């Protein structure tokens, strides 16, 4: 029985329940015009529909989970299964093969022994599918009958349906939270394994990064000092990119909120937002193919001879451009949140627009702007594609922006997509790096959101 | 009654009242927001060292007219002013008029207290600084103290000048805003319903203050409270539907209005 058919069945029955309950609710009123329904007929409909659909779907899901085991059990109880070897790999293979043929996914058996099991499999599958179907329908009807019999004019269908909707919303929000917790848990376990092989002190404070994913495993002369990666990440994401993004983003926000006419604003703002929607991989090849050679040539022209094609500068510049819309829109919001009265107050004192912006509006909006910058940094240091394509792979600990540098995100990609096995410290180092990155961006976001919140309170 | 008639009538009947020298004068002023005419052919003289009150029902244009006296309407994108407004005989809408200078001479206090999110000291020092009135710290201290004294706030805040201006009570904030306006030594102070956000006690303090300030400045106050207009002003203009219905001595307006509409309004028949 395919899940799609069960799903359709459940929805169809729900619809029937909805219609039946609604007409029953209308009937209450027709029978006695004096009667006042507690809830609208539609809510009676939804109440019954939920009682039909939800238990049936839950049962169908449960059945889908347990029926394969039941089917196999049934086949093994069949005398034909006597041909199977007692345990091990072959036994599983034969069973799988027979199952494939029985469900029509394969046309013939490879091992002769499996042939004998095909027929029992067919019987078992038909049997358990029918059981599943019948019980699902029974559950649907039982739920529907239970709900339908409770309908009365003063039945509180609306409150119950609203409670169900609230539960649904709660579950939806829990999904995101649980996923986050799941991510943290998986990172934590792998990180602990990594720190079992490499000392956390060496990792956090070491200045040489030279893992060898193809080696036999520690000790192999690999070094896992992540300082050059942290430095590369900060240099590209938090320094070079921000030197580009903060002034440009802030100035464009000031222009858009304070000087631009409505027409200009209507055109420029969406264009700026389009910049935020460009896939980062596009920025990546723009950085690698266009900006990086230009940066290298410019460096050579001013006499820096060791400039390489892959440079921190190229990646940082492009990343800065990518971040402009974030800084600009956060700054725009917080400048717009400064009350007009503040601006009027300053202008009425005889201040010029420029003085008003510099001395009143920007200081008042500063917390929001700072928060925007922090969010932008957290995004920049988590950014992967641009640095993969433009920054290079060599873990240089240098202040020269024209040299190749590598970042945390780049190394995560490099370590996880390599040939190394999953119990090799080089591969596991990716999780430790991810953990560090996760903690740093989490902290930045947390602080930024706190700042924004405090600031909002101040003006409301 | 058409605009022409009001105009001549106002002119004819009120001129004798203006024994005081004129500070500002509006002649045939109309203000438009886009196509909508908010002020329709208003002519009013603002005398020196008097408090002039603008009263009238909501939406009658009194705040709009007030804002055109220091060109604050310039900050509204589609606002347009026609007619002539003069300050000491000088047309403030002429081309080449420096709005910055104008607003330093014609200060403004708003309906809702709007201190800057800076210290009390910095709030007052803001104007003198941007106008380069003084370079020395001692002189600035002097201006801050004097402004706060004139606004009747000095004794309450002298020990906490470094505290944020927004931490003061509503009434104190409004007096801070008045002190801020005084600090640049203006000639005219415009007040747009300065007490509408305040309780009766704070209102009484501001009204006393307005009376004190009258000796130095020409004051124009927009108010919704007729009692307030009667208490603080010497001249009152009654606005209705963008026109000035009647303008004259406050005592005359309130005890012996010439216009039926004025009488209806001040006796609470409408508005």
TrEMBL record, chain A:
<protein>
    <recommendedName>
        <fullName>Phosphate transport system permease protein</fullName>
    </recommendedName>
</protein>
<comment type="function">
    <text>Part of the binding-protein-dependent transport system for phosphate; probably responsible for the translocation of the substrate across the membrane.</text>
</comment>
<dbReference type="Pfam" id="PF12501">
    <property type="entry name" value="DUF3708"/>
</dbReference>
<feature type="transmembrane region" description="Helical">
    <location>
        <begin position="360"/>
        <end position="381"/>
    </location>
</feature>
<dbReference type="GO" id="GO:0006817">
    <property type="term" value="P:phosphate ion transport"/>
</dbReference>
<comment type="similarity">
    <text>Belongs to the binding-protein-dependent transport system permease family. CysTW subfamily.</text>
</comment>
<feature type="transmembrane region" description="Helical">
    <location>
        <begin position="271"/>
        <end position="292"/>
    </location>
</feature>
<feature type="transmembrane region" description="Helical">
    <location>
        <begin position="163"/>
        <end position="185"/>
    </location>
</feature>
<keyword id="KW-0812">Transmembrane</keyword>
<feature type="transmembrane region" description="Helical">
    <location>
        <begin position="312"/>
        <end position="339"/>
    </location>
</feature>
<dbReference type="GO" id="GO:0005886">
    <property type="term" value="C:plasma membrane"/>
</dbReference>
<dbReference type="InterPro" id="IPR000515">
    <property type="entry name" value="MetI-like"/>
</dbReference>
<dbReference type="InterPro" id="IPR011864">
    <property type="entry name" value="Phosphate_PstC"/>
</dbReference>
<dbReference type="GO" id="GO:0005315">
    <property type="term" value="F:phosphate transmembrane transporter activity"/>
</dbReference>
<keyword id="KW-0592">Phosphate transport</keyword>
<keyword id="KW-0472">Membrane</keyword>
<dbReference type="InterPro" id="IPR035906">
    <property type="entry name" value="MetI-like_sf"/>
</dbReference>
<feature type="transmembrane region" description="Helical">
    <location>
        <begin position="131"/>
        <end position="151"/>
    </location>
</feature>
<feature type="transmembrane region" description="Helical">
    <location>
        <begin position="430"/>
        <end position="452"/>
    </location>
</feature>
<keyword id="KW-1133">Transmembrane helix</keyword>
<feature type="transmembrane region" description="Helical">
    <location>
        <begin position="43"/>
        <end position="66"/>
    </location>
</feature>
<feature type="transmembrane region" description="Helical">
    <location>
        <begin position="229"/>
        <end position="250"/>
    </location>
</feature>
TrEMBL record, chain B:
<keyword id="KW-0547">Nucleotide-binding</keyword>
<keyword id="KW-0067">ATP-binding</keyword>
<keyword id="KW-0813">Transport</keyword>
<dbReference type="GO" id="GO:0016887">
    <property type="term" value="F:ATP hydrolysis activity"/>
</dbReference>
<dbReference type="InterPro" id="IPR005670">
    <property type="entry name" value="PstB-like"/>
</dbReference>
<dbReference type="Pfam" id="PF00005">
    <property type="entry name" value="ABC_tran"/>
</dbReference>
<dbReference type="InterPro" id="IPR003439">
    <property type="entry name" value="ABC_transporter-like_ATP-bd"/>
</dbReference>
<keyword id="KW-1003">Cell membrane</keyword>
<dbReference type="GO" id="GO:0035435">
    <property type="term" value="P:phosphate ion transmembrane transport"/>
</dbReference>
<dbReference type="InterPro" id="IPR017871">
    <property type="entry name" value="ABC_transporter-like_CS"/>
</dbReference>
<comment type="function">
    <text>Part of the ABC transporter complex PstSACB involved in phosphate import. Responsible for energy coupling to the transport system.</text>
</comment>
<dbReference type="InterPro" id="IPR027417">
    <property type="entry name" value="P-loop_NTPase"/>
</dbReference>
<keyword id="KW-0472">Membrane</keyword>
<keyword id="KW-0592">Phosphate transport</keyword>
<dbReference type="InterPro" id="IPR003593">
    <property type="entry name" value="AAA+_ATPase"/>
</dbReference>
<protein>
    <submittedName>
        <fullName>Phosphate transport system ATP-binding protein</fullName>
    </submittedName>
</protein>
<dbReference type="GO" id="GO:0005524">
    <property type="term" value="F:ATP binding"/>
</dbReference>
<dbReference type="GO" id="GO:0005886">
    <property type="term" value="C:plasma membrane"/>
</dbReference>
<keyword id="KW-1278">Translocase</keyword>
<feature type="domain" description="ABC transporter">
    <location>
        <begin position="24"/>
        <end position="266"/>
    </location>
</feature>
<dbReference type="GO" id="GO:0005315">
    <property type="term" value="F:phosphate transmembrane transporter activity"/>
</dbReference>
